[in-house]
Amino acid sequence: MISACIITKNECDNLNICLERLSRYPFEIVVIDTGSTDDTKKVAKKYTSCVYDFVWCNDFSAARNFAISKATKDYILMIDTDEFVDSLDYEALVAQIKANPDAVGRIHRKNVFESDGSDMISNELINRLFPKKLYHYQGTIHEQVVYIDDPQKTYETYVTSLFSTHVGYQGGQALRLEKANRNLKLLLKEHEKDETDTYILYQIGKAYYYMRDYQNAITYFEKAMDYPMNNRLVYVINIMSTYVYCLINTKQFAKGLMLEAVYDDFAHSADFLFAMGLIYMHNAHFEKAIKSFLDATKIKDCDVEGVNTFLAYYNVGVIWECLGNKEKAISYYKESGTYSPALEGIKRCLN
What pTM, to 2 d.p., does this model score? Predict the structure, then answer.
């Protein structure tokens, strides 16, 4: 019923984990190699006979659509080499497909990454499961699932029972830099086609952010912010929160206060409220910082794990400790649970 399709290059270790997880379920597995020089193809052939070569042409959609063309099942599950299935109720997945035969299924993806020496986790839903007869990919990079006959037409989605972990942001700064450079070249070509495309501007900014070129990231985020955007879209919210982190990394703390003008527009986002809490902290606006952090804890959903729970409470604890109120500091550190910096904060306050 379902073909799991993968495009890959020189990622034999990740591919082995990815395919071992997929092989636990009755998927047809299709692997497209785009020019590996390691043991990637050898690993792929351990799990499937459907291994094909594709000459890389700087177009992710072309590679994904080639994979779809080699699949023999009616539904496509597109998985990346660095995405590992954590759990899946296969019977429930089949039932969901039957209940939504023409819709696009979204999988749960947990992104694991390092930020300033700390392990961080963000969560997202991404469109990855769809009927082969109706959909394909469009866009040379950060490609999107679209209708074959009308790419502009909107479609229904549903959330599947598949949970995965994405490790593509791990592997150290060198690997992140390599991927970001690759993506940036393609993104800048897309930007030349339409300089007003805010999604491409966002992705260029993110590429620079992953390269730790924060000033260039700021430049492209600000270009995107010059155009009207829907403040409910996930990528728009991410522009605002990542922009704040760029300002912090470049020590432009006062400039961050300019975002108070749009505070209410993004007050539905725990990620934005947390980021603004950091801006207020750096500007010694402690009352506003505490309010922003605590407001973040009232919002159920977030992108980066902890901004609406232990990270927010921890920062409130830090503020109260800095202000000399150890009793309040301890109470908020305790709200952070087993978060190690908070446990260290409690020890400091008790000494």
Answer: 0.81
- Which range of residues forms the domain containing residue 176? 171-228
- 20 with 131, same domain: the answer is yes
CA distance 233 to 155: 16
pLDDT digits (tens, 9 = 90+) for 125-153: 999 999 999 999 998 888 899 999 999 99
Q: Are residues 106 and 66 in the same domain?
A: yes
Q: Measured between alpha carbons, how far apart are the two ends of the chain, in Å?
A: 62
Mean pLDDT, the chain cut into blocks of 10 residues (351 residues total) = 96 96 98 96 98 96 98 98 96 97 96 69 92 95 93 94 86 67 89 93 92 95 95 92 96 97 96 97 98 97 93 98 97 97 96 87
Packed helices 234-249 and 214-225: angle between N→C axes, nearest 10 degrees: 140
Q: What is the pLDDT of residues 89-132, one digit of tens each?
A: 999 999 999 999 999 999 999 988 766 556 678 888 999 999 99
Of 208, 168, 207, the C-alpha closest to 9 is 168
Q: What is the DSSP letter of 126?
A: E
Total domains, the chain: 2
- Residue 338 buriedness (CB in 10 A; 0-12 / 13-18 / 19+): exposed
Which CATH number do you get for residue 180? 1.25.40
Two tokens at 53?
A: 């070569």
Q: Is the dihedral of CA 119, 125, 129, 135 positive or negative?
A: negative
